[in-house]
Design the sequence.
């Protein structure tokens, strides 16, 4: 496991389109299918301890904010060659177990993760009504080993600001999590650069 921070894509970036299948239903989703004024895109997976640590709060957030004009979508981009526990059948089982009403999509080619410059699980992105990036980074400052409670404070503050039509939070902290499990030879430049910096830093 490589503890990896978010890449912090520039605020204002237009949400990249996608066309991905939802294992739980077999439905294919695109960006245009999400029509609420605010959209949360989350890169998560089944096995990552950082995701397991926050997934109950993700469930609560999605339930609470759905009535306030916020859509949620989760995307799993991990390679099932190295991590079969993150495969589509396990994704579908997890979504059912947790009662997720939002789609949990499988990015088999990993091209969507690359388009979003996603680096870790979990990695959160909030887009406004124009689908411009409003927030990216952590759910809150809780981690599996630091003893801080999981509150979703950072993401909640960003969503409240987006709903109110206020400015994006000035301070946005990167998420920290397991690195996305790239297929051999499919690693994006931003990941190989990060690994190189850890070796030389």
Sequence:
């Amino acid at each position: 496991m490589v503890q990896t921070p978010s890449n912090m894509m520039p605020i204002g970036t237009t949400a990249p389109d996608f066309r991905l299948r939802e294992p739980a239903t077999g439905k294919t989703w695109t960006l245009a299918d999400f029509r609420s004024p605010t959209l949360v895109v989350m890169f998560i997976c089944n096995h990552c301890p950082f995701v397991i640590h926050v997934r109950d709060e993700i469930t609560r957030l999605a339930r609470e904010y759905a009535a306030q004009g916020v859509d949620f979508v989760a995307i799993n981009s991990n390679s099932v060659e190295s991590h079969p526990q993150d495969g589509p059948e396990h994704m579908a089982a997890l979504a059912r177990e947790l009662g997720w009403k939002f789609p949990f999509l499988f990015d088999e080619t990993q091209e969507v993760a690359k388009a979003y410059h996603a680096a870790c699980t979990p990695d959160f992105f909030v887009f406004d009504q124009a689908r411009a990036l409003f927030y990216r980074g952590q759910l809150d400052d809780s981690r599996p080993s630091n003893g801080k409670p999981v509150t979703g404070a950072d993401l909640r503050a960003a969503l409240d600001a987006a709903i109110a039509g206020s400015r994006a939070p000035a301070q946005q902290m990167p998420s920290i999590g397991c690195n996305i499990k790239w297929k051999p030879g499919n690693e994006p430049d931003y990941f190989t650069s990060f690994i190189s910096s850890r070796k030389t830093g």
User: Anything to note?
Assistant: The chain has a mean pLDDT of 95. The chain has one domain: 3-200. The beta strands are 3-5, 19-21, 28-30, 38-43, 70-76, 104-106, 120-121, 123-127, 133-137, 176-179.
